[in-house]
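Encode chain A's predicted structure.
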Amino acid sequence: MLYQYQVLDVILTLLCILALVKGKKVKGFCWMDAVLSLWALFFLFAFLRHPYPESTTVLVKIMSMFLLYILGRLYYYKWPKLVKYLTYGLTITLIVSLITAITGIGFQYWGSIYTFMGLYYFKTDAAAALSQCLIFYLIRKDFSIKQLIIILIGLSLIALANARIYYLISFLIIILHFLYARECRTGKRILISYKLITIVVMSIVFIIFALNELSSDLGEDYLLIQFDDVDELYDNKNTQGRNVIWEIMLNRFFHEDLTTQIVGLHLTADSVIDSHNAHSLYIFLLISTGYLGIAIFLLFLFTVTVYINKIKTAKLFYYNICFMMQLLIAGISCSVLICTQLTWLPLFFLGLGVSDSQHNSETRSLPSRIPA
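Encoded structure for chain A:
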């Protein structure tokens, strides 16, 4: 929202740097810190391979997420108050979005579909902010009537935004609400394991087939998914042309020499190859940082899993799952690393979670987490 005023991004970044200077000392350097430091250095290396103004912008956006991780590590002791402020801010975003929907100024044509965008440049940006608002309202044991109304408004606006990937993300957030409520009632922990991954995979399959069924009745008014054969999931219509961009970029990458494939091209290789961004976190990482960059990313995911499973505060555990899930799933069709809206909160909450795991290290043997 207010994307026209880029000076606001600069001001917000400066405030983050000021908060970094004033923050308390981080409690103990850990493996998560080391992996993120390695990842940041590798992005810097990719930048130095093509150090032009466009690359500088991309580098600053990417490096800002590491700044938010450090802030999470520094301000762990204030996390309940910070969550309250974030909830207020995202609630205001939801209310403004609702006003633009009621007045009609938040709607634009997206191709032939009249879709909701709020005050955002892309419909997916609006859906991303609304889904983040839902996280703070759904990760709780129960709701008041007012909170339930906010949740229903958020879900309705996401549906109007025609951002299909966020239908799935919203559905998964709702499932995680029930898992959190179950843990609060029974004390039974859930971890990132094959069980949770199975739940996510089954949910993805369910949503894909549900959208395909709905497309026969609503396909003219909503961007859904239409296929008769599984192979058609990757067609031009269902990917909105992204498949063409992905194939062009992958074809160029695999025709590079082995050294380039190992270390990648550079941070703006996607826009140089096809004048578009990669429209995928995973393709962006591959062509920008090569096989080594993918290996570091996999190491990051492994280390994230280890540290999130160590979090002793239940609400922080589920916040981390929700935001990291949003980052990874939205990354299927979006270059999320250059979208600070999608990287700041996941990395901030990861920092909070890592500090929580260290702060409560003496209670690791306990069978249950702290509810909040």
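The longest strand covers residues 107-110.
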